[in-house]
Design a protein that fits this description.
2 copies of one chain form a homodimer.
Chain A: H1 9-22, H2 25-31, E1 39-41, E2 47-49, H3 51-62, E3 69-79, E4 83-93, E5 104-113, E6 116-126
Parallel strand pairs in A: 1-6
Antiparallel strand pairs in A: 1-2, 3-4, 4-5, 5-6
């Protein structure tokens, strides 16, 4: 799988979400830069650095097998010669699940390498749309701390 | 403030967090690229695109005035000629608040412009450390939907 060359950051992104949907670990890891500086932040999770750690996280996520649908929308791209910064909405769904999920916000950074475009960073975070943001202020007891920015 | 030239992405980052701590809107906006492609995602918030929208969000956050302490740690940087991608922990605290806050995870992307280094993207998201991640699977009723990645 590592011989695949992605001609653009969007090609690389298509491959990333296809691998995600198929729960295909080899295809997923072919997307990433061969670089110990790769960073992956799953929604609500810690920052994972380095290929080995990133691979283990996807292995764990893919253990349940495929079955997820992943659509993307609202994509905005800023590109330079060597990097491309994409932000977008990931619209994840499980067939048969009645409740629509809130979109996930993702920042994907791609790097132009000698072997084509590869993913350098994936930072995903949830955006609960129905929950109003708590105004800044001191903690009000149990529950999530109020947002300060 | 817009005449300031940051010689490096780390200089720009120092200015960003200093402006944040001081609740100084002019200093904050001097950090950002003069580009309608700037993107800012506050923890748990939507994606904000463009300088005007980003400015309004900081104006709202700064309305309460200064009083916040912002430290950064665990910084990892990947740089090319034109861009620098930083990931780090933001350690926010309110003096006098008894409970220590969980760090915020941030991805900051900087662009080398004709006017020095500027912030192109800020994506911050909470990381509740004490809450185990819910394994993938269908929704189990009320509460946050389980994470799928």
């Amino acid at each position: 799988m590592t011989s695949i060359i992605y001609a653009s950051s969007t090609d690389c992104e298509v491959a990333f979400y296809r691998a995600f949907e198929k729960a295909d670990l080899a295809a997923m890891m072919a997307v990433w830069a061969e670089d110990d500086e790769v960073v992956c932040i799953h929604p609500g999770g810690p920052r994972l650095c380095g290929l080995d750690t990133v691979r283990e996280s996807w292995r764990s996520i893919f253990a349940a097998g495929p079955g997820l649908r992943v659509g993307i929308s609202h994509r905005v791209i800023t590109a330079t010669l060597q990097t491309a910064i994409h932000t977008l909405h990931e619209n994840l769904s499980v067939p048969g699940e009645p409740r629509e999920r809130a979109p996930i916000l993702a920042t994907n950074v791609y790097l132009r390498t000698e072997r084509g475009w590869r993913m350098l960073l994936h930072h995903a975070s949830p955006t609960p749309p129905a929950t109003p943001r708590t105004p800044p202020g001191p903690s009000r007891g149990p529950g999530p701390a109020p947002l300060l920015h």
